[in-house]
Write a structure and sequence with these properties.
The protein has six helices and four strands; from the N terminus they run H-H-H-H-E-E-H-E-E-H. It has a two-stranded antiparallel sheet. Strand 1 and strand 2 form a beta hairpin. Helix 1 packs across helix 5, helix 3 runs antiparallel to helix 4 and helix 4 runs antiparallel to helix 5.
Amino acid sequence: MHLNPYGEYAVLLAATLANDWPADRAGIVARTREFGMTMGFSAAAGDHQRTREVIDNWLDVVDAPGPQQRAALLNAQLAAAAAYPRLTDHDDEGWHLHYRDERDSLPEVLVSVISVGTALHLSTRGMHRLGRCAAGAAPRDPCSAVVVDVTRNGRQQYCSVRCANRAAVRRHRARSTPASSKS
């Protein structure tokens, strides 16, 4: 049953903004369209920079050292968003819920959608299902991309097949290297 799309799609939107920051407001809006947000956004001065702050605050949740800290940071973001669910029927999509007022600016909408979506994602899939690419600790080619685990088994650690393959090759080479050549 597809009850609420805000969980997965909102967290994936936040991750793609964090991993590949758009050059301008139009790029952010285009990205929201890719993730199914069809309503317009009221323009406000500083939208690009204020949206960057939304994403940077969200990254604090991603990088929190444990579930309690992650929940506390996310609860603060939810409280700051002051969004409440509203029924809407824009764009002939039929009645559905939005966590935004139609007059909200881009950063106001995104802090609401992303914080609610992240809360839904973590509470339904698990507090561990958001983090940084496990290849981040690699001495060569470290990766700091955000990983949103939407897999069935809940074990996604890498942002891409490329990072997973590189890590597997490093592990294989570490096992295959004779002890005398390690020094």
